[in-house]
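Run Eukaryotic translation initiation factor 5 through structure prediction, thanks.
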Amino acid sequence: MAAGFVNIRRDVDDKFYRYRMPILLTKIEGKGNGIKTVLPNMADVARALSRPPSYTTKFFGCELGAQTTCDEKNEKYIINGAHNADRLRELLDGFIDKFVLCKSCKNPETELIILKVGRSEDIIRDCKACGERTGVEMRHKLVTFILKNPPIKARKGKKAAQNGDAAAGVGGGGDVTPDNAEEAADGNPDSDDELTKKIKAEAAELNEETTLANEDWSADTSPEAVKARMKALEGGLAAASLANGDDEGSDDDGNSPYTQFGNWIMDVPELDPKALNVAIYKKAEELGIEKKHKTVLILVTIFTEDVLTEIPNLAPLFKKMVTSEKHQKALLGGIERLVGLAFPDLLPQVPKILMALYQDDILDEEVITNWGTHVSKKYTDKETSKKVRKASEPFLKWLEEADDDDSDED
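Sure, done. The structure for Eukaryotic translation initiation factor 5 is below.
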């Protein structure tokens, strides 16, 4: 019997609340000393919470003083003894409060991060909604299990499964802030795993010859013409931001924080990548729009015809500012305008641009795939939208084939 769905925060009665999970199901098996409670849909519940199912199961064991069994390969999760379903659902609410919900905004869109402080370790909830980092109750018995079985950095789509990530979305790793952007920009050249190396190799082989390659997309590429197109593009983005109500209350286009940010971006001084990342974030923060998705839309105007070499330098900044699906869609909208309007000669480079953003964990596979299969006139005219998506076909095909390979291996 299929489970229904409930709000992750069960104190929220809003039927349109976006964060939902399956109702936890239980099944009593065995008898006598061998009686046990099976949790048949624990994997689905855990995925909705972006936590490994072993965490929730072990939490039950800690609270009930019972032994647990976690077979992640076969998705079998068991608690010794007979336990009432309502009681387990109450305990699940406790787990959500202690290890999922942001302590600041009560949003469940968090990741667990383990931070080393001297010889000790702290577990932090990193909220992708409000940006706050809040600690968990370090005295709870589950903490020891989490430290011994740390969360795995999430990979994209189906590729997460082949690396043992039981709950896509669970990850570690720090964010870029004005204080640590310099460190993050350095990167770690020795951190590539086999999958990343494979992606890089295949990215180099992506076919740039699309059906659009022979079309007449010539444009005046003089510095004056490019500057004029970029200025018009920035103005269009700011206007779109105002029209969609993401401005901080200003009715004057020239004084809106987005227009100010766009103008500042157009005239940003030449800085080394580390300093540039910090300067841009500080400017957005100063204007109070560092967490707005339309800020990402305008930020794309910083790219030039050398976008492929610029993405790695700005990746730490984009990873900091692109924190939700809405941010990713805004980024893709900015790319549409960049290659479709400002620099049409970049159209054949779309697959490599998408690969670079995907490889740096800025864009998710599902968001790219959905974008590539749904033409929209939200950011450009419909014809330009079609052409940009058509140009992306080699990368979309690569994603599909990579998923097929994963399925075959399973």
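Residues 5-163 form a domain with the Defensin A-like fold (CATH 3.30.30.170).
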